[in-house]
Protein backbone atom coordinates (compact mmCIF):
# COMPACT_ATOMS: atom_id res chain seq x y z
CA UNK A 1 0.00 0.00 0.00
CA UNK A 2 1.12 3.53 -0.72
CA UNK A 3 1.87 5.90 2.15
CA UNK A 4 3.48 9.23 2.90
CA UNK A 5 5.20 10.51 6.02
CA UNK A 6 5.40 14.19 6.79
CA UNK A 7 8.41 14.62 9.00
CA UNK A 8 7.34 17.81 10.79
CA UNK A 9 3.98 18.55 12.36
CA UNK A 10 4.81 22.26 12.67
CA UNK A 11 7.27 24.52 10.85
CA UNK A 12 7.84 28.14 11.86
CA UNK A 13 9.52 30.67 9.58
CA UNK A 14 9.83 34.42 9.35
CA UNK A 15 8.33 36.30 6.46
CA UNK A 16 10.82 36.50 3.59
CA UNK A 17 12.80 33.41 4.62
CA UNK A 18 12.80 30.06 2.78
CA UNK A 19 10.25 27.36 3.45
CA UNK A 20 11.00 23.62 3.54
CA UNK A 21 8.28 21.08 4.28
CA UNK A 22 9.50 17.50 4.26
CA UNK A 23 7.74 14.43 2.93
CA UNK A 24 8.87 10.85 2.39
CA UNK A 25 6.82 8.34 0.47
CA UNK A 26 6.50 4.60 0.28
CA UNK A 27 5.28 3.02 -2.92
CA UNK A 28 5.67 -0.28 -4.68
CA UNK A 29 5.62 1.41 -8.07
CA UNK A 30 6.24 4.83 -9.56
CA UNK A 31 3.87 7.03 -7.59
CA UNK A 32 1.81 10.10 -8.34
CA UNK A 33 2.54 12.62 -5.61
CA UNK A 34 0.81 15.84 -4.69
CA UNK A 35 0.97 18.71 -2.27
CA UNK A 36 -2.29 20.26 -1.10
CA UNK A 37 -2.81 23.30 1.10
CA UNK A 38 -5.69 23.94 3.47
CA UNK A 39 -6.38 27.37 4.89
CA UNK A 40 -8.50 27.61 8.05
CA UNK A 41 -12.12 26.59 7.49
CA UNK A 42 -11.47 26.02 3.81
CA UNK A 43 -11.25 23.04 1.50
CA UNK A 44 -8.07 21.66 -0.01
CA UNK A 45 -6.28 23.38 -2.85
CA UNK A 46 -3.83 21.59 -5.14
CA UNK A 47 -0.40 23.23 -5.05
CA UNK A 48 1.46 20.91 -7.39
CA UNK A 49 1.72 17.32 -8.60
CA UNK A 50 4.35 14.87 -9.78
CA UNK A 51 3.37 12.22 -12.32
CA UNK A 52 6.72 10.82 -13.56
CA UNK A 53 7.55 13.65 -15.94
CA UNK A 54 10.07 16.26 -14.73
CA UNK A 55 11.43 15.57 -11.25
CA UNK A 56 11.34 19.26 -10.32
CA UNK A 57 7.75 20.36 -10.21
CA UNK A 58 6.63 23.96 -10.07
CA UNK A 59 3.32 24.84 -8.52
CA UNK A 60 1.22 27.83 -7.68
CA UNK A 61 2.21 30.74 -5.45
CA UNK A 62 5.95 30.16 -5.92
CA UNK A 63 6.04 26.66 -4.44
CA UNK A 64 8.01 23.82 -5.97
CA UNK A 65 8.90 20.25 -5.06
CA UNK A 66 11.57 17.82 -6.15
CA UNK A 67 10.95 14.11 -6.59
CA UNK A 68 14.00 12.13 -5.44
CA UNK A 69 13.57 8.43 -6.02
CA UNK A 70 16.86 7.49 -4.34
CA UNK A 71 15.72 9.21 -1.15
CA UNK A 72 11.99 8.45 -1.56
CA UNK A 73 11.35 12.11 -0.85
CA UNK A 74 9.11 14.82 -2.23
CA UNK A 75 9.93 17.93 -0.20
CA UNK A 76 8.05 21.20 -0.75
CA UNK A 77 10.00 24.45 -0.90
CA UNK A 78 9.48 28.15 -1.44
CA UNK A 79 12.30 30.71 -1.61
CA UNK A 80 10.54 33.41 0.38
CA UNK A 81 7.61 32.95 2.75
CA UNK A 82 4.66 35.29 2.75
CA UNK A 83 2.21 35.81 5.59
CA UNK A 84 -0.57 34.38 3.41
CA UNK A 85 1.34 31.06 3.23
CA UNK A 86 0.36 30.27 6.81
CA UNK A 87 -1.80 27.16 6.49
CA UNK A 88 -1.75 23.37 6.77
CA UNK A 89 0.06 21.48 4.03
CA UNK A 90 -0.57 17.88 3.07
CA UNK A 91 1.68 15.56 1.14
CA UNK A 92 -0.45 13.07 -0.76
CA UNK A 93 0.11 9.92 -2.78
CA UNK A 94 -2.36 8.49 -5.23
CA UNK A 95 -3.20 4.85 -4.73
CA UNK A 96 -3.19 4.53 -8.46
CA UNK A 97 -2.40 0.84 -8.77
CA UNK A 98 -6.01 0.11 -9.48
CA UNK A 99 -6.52 3.31 -11.43
CA UNK A 100 -9.03 4.53 -8.87
CA UNK A 101 -9.13 8.06 -7.56
CA UNK A 102 -8.05 7.31 -4.01
CA UNK A 103 -5.69 9.70 -2.30
CA UNK A 104 -3.65 8.79 0.75
CA UNK A 105 -2.85 11.82 2.89
CA UNK A 106 0.01 12.52 5.22
CA UNK A 107 -0.70 13.85 8.68
CA UNK A 108 -0.09 17.43 7.65
CA UNK A 109 2.43 20.15 8.46
CA UNK A 110 1.22 23.41 9.91
CA UNK A 111 3.25 26.31 8.55
CA UNK A 112 3.48 29.35 10.82
CA UNK A 113 4.79 32.59 9.34
CA UNK A 114 5.81 35.41 11.64
CA UNK A 115 6.33 39.04 10.60
CA UNK B 1 -16.32 27.16 -14.41
CA UNK B 2 -18.03 26.56 -11.09
CA UNK B 3 -16.11 24.62 -8.47
CA UNK B 4 -17.18 21.72 -6.31
CA UNK B 5 -20.24 22.58 -4.26
CA UNK B 6 -21.04 20.87 -0.99
CA UNK B 7 -24.23 21.37 0.94
CA UNK B 8 -24.94 22.09 3.66
CA UNK B 9 -21.79 23.78 4.97
CA UNK B 10 -22.65 23.15 8.61
CA UNK B 11 -24.84 20.58 10.27
CA UNK B 12 -25.67 19.67 13.86
CA UNK B 13 -27.24 16.29 14.52
CA UNK B 14 -28.08 14.20 17.56
CA UNK B 15 -26.62 10.76 18.27
CA UNK B 16 -28.65 8.04 16.64
CA UNK B 17 -29.96 10.23 13.85
CA UNK B 18 -28.97 9.90 10.24
CA UNK B 19 -27.62 12.54 7.89
CA UNK B 20 -27.26 13.07 4.15
CA UNK B 21 -24.58 15.27 2.64
CA UNK B 22 -24.56 16.45 -0.96
CA UNK B 23 -21.79 17.14 -3.45
CA UNK B 24 -22.09 18.68 -6.91
CA UNK B 25 -18.90 18.10 -8.91
CA UNK B 26 -17.34 20.32 -11.53
CA UNK B 27 -19.25 20.13 -14.77
CA UNK B 28 -17.97 17.26 -16.90
CA UNK B 29 -16.31 15.43 -14.02
CA UNK B 30 -17.54 11.89 -13.58
CA UNK B 31 -15.61 10.88 -10.47
CA UNK B 32 -16.60 11.95 -6.98
CA UNK B 33 -14.66 10.92 -3.88
CA UNK B 34 -15.48 11.49 -0.24
CA UNK B 35 -13.05 12.03 2.63
CA UNK B 36 -13.45 12.43 6.36
CA UNK B 37 -11.17 14.83 8.22
CA UNK B 38 -10.82 14.69 12.00
CA UNK B 39 -8.12 16.03 14.33
CA UNK B 40 -7.29 12.53 15.54
CA UNK B 41 -7.35 10.50 12.32
CA UNK B 42 -6.53 13.16 9.76
CA UNK B 43 -7.88 12.81 6.23
CA UNK B 44 -9.26 9.40 5.39
CA UNK B 45 -10.76 8.09 2.18
CA UNK B 46 -14.40 7.01 2.41
CA UNK B 47 -15.36 5.97 -1.12
CA UNK B 48 -15.24 6.94 -4.77
CA UNK B 49 -17.94 6.88 -7.41
CA UNK B 50 -17.49 6.97 -11.16
CA UNK B 51 -20.44 7.01 -13.54
CA UNK B 52 -22.84 5.96 -10.76
CA UNK B 53 -20.70 2.97 -9.69
CA UNK B 54 -18.73 2.71 -6.49
CA UNK B 55 -15.20 1.88 -7.60
CA UNK B 56 -13.41 1.84 -4.27
CA UNK B 57 -14.22 1.97 -0.61
CA UNK B 58 -12.18 2.87 2.46
CA UNK B 59 -12.20 1.20 5.85
CA UNK B 60 -15.37 2.63 7.32
CA UNK B 61 -18.33 0.79 8.82
CA UNK B 62 -21.44 0.07 6.80
CA UNK B 63 -23.19 3.04 8.44
CA UNK B 64 -21.39 5.14 5.86
CA UNK B 65 -22.83 4.83 2.40
CA UNK B 66 -23.04 6.85 -0.75
CA UNK B 67 -24.46 7.05 -4.20
CA UNK B 68 -24.02 8.95 -7.41
CA UNK B 69 -26.71 10.15 -9.76
CA UNK B 70 -26.72 10.25 -13.55
CA UNK B 71 -25.76 13.94 -13.47
CA UNK B 72 -22.67 12.98 -11.37
CA UNK B 73 -23.97 14.63 -8.23
CA UNK B 74 -23.25 12.51 -5.21
CA UNK B 75 -24.67 12.04 -1.76
CA UNK B 76 -23.24 10.35 1.26
CA UNK B 77 -25.34 9.08 4.12
CA UNK B 78 -24.37 8.26 7.67
CA UNK B 79 -26.89 6.32 9.71
CA UNK B 80 -27.07 5.92 13.48
CA UNK B 81 -24.73 8.80 14.12
CA UNK B 82 -22.08 8.52 16.81
CA UNK B 83 -20.16 11.30 18.53
CA UNK B 84 -17.04 10.15 16.70
CA UNK B 85 -18.63 10.92 13.36
CA UNK B 86 -18.17 14.62 14.05
CA UNK B 87 -15.82 15.75 11.32
CA UNK B 88 -15.29 17.81 8.21
CA UNK B 89 -16.50 15.80 5.23
CA UNK B 90 -14.81 16.72 2.00
CA UNK B 91 -15.86 15.86 -1.50
CA UNK B 92 -13.43 15.75 -4.42
CA UNK B 93 -14.30 15.96 -8.08
CA UNK B 94 -12.15 14.55 -10.88
CA UNK B 95 -12.49 13.81 -14.57
CA UNK B 96 -11.66 10.20 -13.71
CA UNK B 97 -7.90 10.05 -13.87
CA UNK B 98 -5.91 13.03 -12.75
CA UNK B 99 -6.29 15.98 -10.43
CA UNK B 100 -8.83 16.01 -7.65
CA UNK B 101 -10.56 19.30 -6.86
CA UNK B 102 -12.04 19.66 -3.41
CA UNK B 103 -15.10 21.42 -2.15
CA UNK B 104 -15.10 23.47 1.04
CA UNK B 105 -16.60 20.64 3.00
CA UNK B 106 -19.52 20.02 5.31
CA UNK B 107 -18.80 20.42 9.01
CA UNK B 108 -20.88 17.81 10.86
CA UNK B 109 -21.25 18.05 14.61
CA UNK B 110 -22.92 15.20 16.46
CA UNK B 111 -24.20 16.02 19.95
List the SSEs and their pairings.
The complex is a heterodimer of chains A (115) and B (111).
Chain A: E1 3-6, E2 10-14, E3 19-21, E4 23-26, E5 33-38, E6 44-50, E7 56-58, E8 64-68, E9 73-78, E10 87-94, E11 103-105, E12 109-114
Parallel strand pairs in A: 2-12
Antiparallel strand pairs in A: 1-4, 3-9, 5-6, 5-10, 7-8, 8-9, 10-11, 10-12
Chain B: E1 5-7, E2 10-13, E3 19-24, E4 31-38, E5 42-50, E6 53-57, E7 64-68, E8 74-78, E9 87-94, E10 101-102, E11 106-110
Parallel strand pairs in B: 2-11
Antiparallel strand pairs in B: 1-3, 3-8, 4-5, 4-9, 5-6, 7-8, 9-10, 9-11
Structure, explained:
The complex is a heterodimer of chains A (115) and B (111). Chain A has 115 residues and is mainly β. Chain A has strands at 3-6, 10-14, 19-21, 23-26, 33-38, 44-50, 56-58, 64-68, 73-78, 87-94, 103-105, 109-114. In chain A, the strands form three sheets. In chain A, strands 2, 5, 6, 10, 11 and 12 form a six-stranded mixed sheet that branches. A four-stranded antiparallel sheet of chain A has the order 3-9-8-7, with no helix packed on it. Chain A has a two-stranded antiparallel ribbon with strand order 1-4. Chain A is globular and about 40 Å long. Chain A starts with a strand and ends with a strand. The model of chain A has no long low-confidence stretch (mean pLDDT 91). Chain B has 111 residues and is mainly beta. Chain B has no helices and eleven strands. In chain B, strands 2, 4, 5, 6, 9, 10 and 11 form a seven-stranded mixed sheet that branches. A four-stranded antiparallel sheet of chain B has the order 1-3-8-7, with no helix packed on it. Chain B starts with a strand and ends with a strand. The mean pLDDT of chain B is 94. The interface between A and B is medium-sized, with 19 and 25 residues.
